[in-house]
Amino acid sequence: MSTTRPYPPGDRGPQPGASTAPPATTVDGTSPALEQGTGASNGGAPVAPEVRQLNLAGESGVVPLSRDFTRQALYAWGWLPSSTDDGRAAAEDVLLIVSELVTNACLHAEEPESLTLTFDGKAIRIAVTDRGEGQPTPRTPHQAGRPGGHGMFIVQRLSMDWGVAAAPELPGKTVWADLARPTA
C-alpha cells in the first residue's frame, strides 16, 4: 500500500543466513504475520518475535501513554539510542505512526482498546485495536494545505505496508503498520 516500501508487501527482504526460498504468501492476498527471524548471536537459530501489549481501554491520555510505551520498547529492542541519522529517523517514524493510529482510534472509533508492538528482528508491527466499524483510508486526493485528514496518508507514506484486520465475531478492527529496522 505504501509507495516507499523497499520490498513487496509482506516481504522483509533477505534474511541474513537464511535460505533463498521464496517468502511465504497468503492465499487470500492478506499480509502475512511477522516472520520468525534468525539470530546471528545464536548461530542462526530461529528467534521468536517479541511482543509487547498495552491495554488502552478506559485510560486517559492514551496518545502520550502509547508513545512512552513504544519508546521503551524501542530502547529494549536496540532501535534507541541510535548513532545514525537513519536510525533516529526510523525511531521517530515508529513513534509518529503510533501517534497517528491511536489518535485515529480516539477520533473515529469509540476508543482504542490496545496497542500491540511486535518485533521480529527485521521489522516492527504496530497494531491498534478498537471497537469502531469504519475502515481507515488515506484521503485522496491528498490536500496538504487543509487541516485534518493526514493521519492515514502519513501511515501509508512511512510504513512498508499497512492494513486493517476485522475482529472475528466482535465489533471492531485492528489497524496495523509495518516498518523496517534501519540497516546499519
Summarize the structure.
With 184 residues, this protein is an alpha+beta fold. It has three helices and seven strands.
Describe this protein's structure:
The protein has 184 residues and is α+β, with helices and mostly antiparallel strands. It contains 3 helices and 7 strands. It has a 5-stranded antiparallel β-sheet, with helices on one face. The chain has a two-stranded antiparallel sheet with strand order 1-2. Residues 1-41 have low confidence and may be disordered. Residues 1-47 are annotated as: Disordered.
Task: Provide key terms for this protein.
184 residues; alpha+beta; five-stranded antiparallel sheet; two-stranded antiparallel ribbon; 26% helix; globular; disordered N terminus
Radius of gyration: 16 Å
> Total number of helical segments?
3
The main sheet comes to: 5 strands, antiparallel
Q: Helices and strands: which structural class? A: alpha+beta
**What is the CA–CA distance across the termini?**
26 Å
Uncertain parts:
1-41
Overall pLDDT confidence: 78
Q: How are the strands of the biggest sheet laid out side by side?
A: 3-4-5-7-6
Quaternary form: single chain
Kindly estimate the percentage of residues that lie in beta strands according to DSSP.
Answer: 15-25%
Biased composition (Pro residues): 1-11
Keywords: ATP-binding, Kinase, Nucleotide-binding, Serine/threonine-protein kinase, Transferase
Region (Disordered): 1-47
GO molecular function: ATP binding
